[in-house]
Design a protein that fits this description.
Elements: E1 12-17, H1 25-39, E2 43-47, H2 52-55, E3 61-64, E4 92-93, E5 99-100, H3 103-112, E6 117-122, H4 124-137, E7 141-145, H5 161-166, E8 172-175, H6 182-191, E9 195-197, H7 205-217, E10 225-228, H8 245-257, E11 264-265, H9 277-296, E12 301-306, E13 309-314, H10 315-321, H11 331-338, H12 345-355
Parallel strand pairs: 1-2, 1-6, 6-7, 7-12, 8-10, 8-11, 9-10
Antiparallel strand pairs: 2-3, 4-5, 12-13
Helix pairs in contact: 1-9, 3-4, 4-10
Bound molecules: 6-O-phosphono-beta-D-fructofuranose.
Amino acid sequence: MPQSPSPSSIKRIGVLTSGGDCSGLNAVIRAVVFRATQTYEWQVYGIHSGALGLMERPLMYEELNLSRFQGHMLRTGGTMLGTTSKGDPFHYPMPDGSFKDHSGDFVRGFQELGLDALIGIGGDGSLNLLSQLTTQGGIAFVGIPKTIDNDVALTEFAVGFATAVSHNRVMILEVMGRDAGHIAISAGLAGGADVILLPEIPYLEEGVITKLKSLIARGQNHALMVVAEGVEPTGGNKNDNRNGIGDYLGDVLGRRLDAVVRVTVLGHLQRGGAPCSQDRILAQTFGTRAVDMVAEGKLDRMVAWRERGVVDVALDKVVRQGERKVLTDGTYIRTARALGVYVGEDHMQTTAERVS
Ligand code: F6P
């Protein structure tokens, strides 16, 4: 177990971003630096390229102070520290094709920099790896959840999600989100979609067709469909989906509906751009709280947003719980259904039951 350093013994902390980039990361880093340097008079080292910065030699890092954050850093997309979503430190790919356990270098890197604690900003996969690395090395650690997918357990919001959703003003689109449909359902509701497909609820091709035909029949000459990338084709060959579910459905609907279908795959666009106000506020709340937790010796925990405020939760519980999926009977799905949006097979069953 990591020793918890007393706040007065802390002189220097590290901060890193890990996994895919998203909006609001610079806002978190800025909040960590402001709080740590101004309130506690700690030095802050920004570790470059996620865990890699501590694994590589020479070590990759920079000292961060307030002057680094003049201008628009709060609103700037990406991460000033760089990040990586490749390379498990416990099973690290070597140039000769073999794999090596690099975790010891990470721990030694932390010690060589004279760090007393580490704050890691990451999604579920990164927090899991960082939790293992820091436990192994007895490193005082606090996690901050970030991911456009919003699928980290035990927190209602992760930094980056709100901005990804607010980018969705397009009407027929495939959105990211990995195996969770948070982006799809939020973007779909916000954009007034007629059909929203997410990985959590299997869809029926007939359900989509029926919904779209009913719109056409009542004189609507356009339809909005938001489809999560993790949706699998129903009744189709999985291989048909190799270009993405959006293209797959575009083909199917084009053939079956006698309508012109256009598909837009938003892809990585959603991860860039300036963070929206909700992400900027979340980022600063999380960043300052994480620094306070280090000061208070509240370690092996993750900051989280629950019931309108910031709290902290046990990191091992987050890791154990795994991916946070869309609640299939939750408010968003019920609202979509109440509006007549087709969100997957359950709805069709209900409709069928109602009709019969
Ligand atoms: O986890 C964030 C995310 O953008 C997912 O929504 C998506 O499935 C994945 O990363 C894409 O990964 P990559 O950037 O490696 O293509």
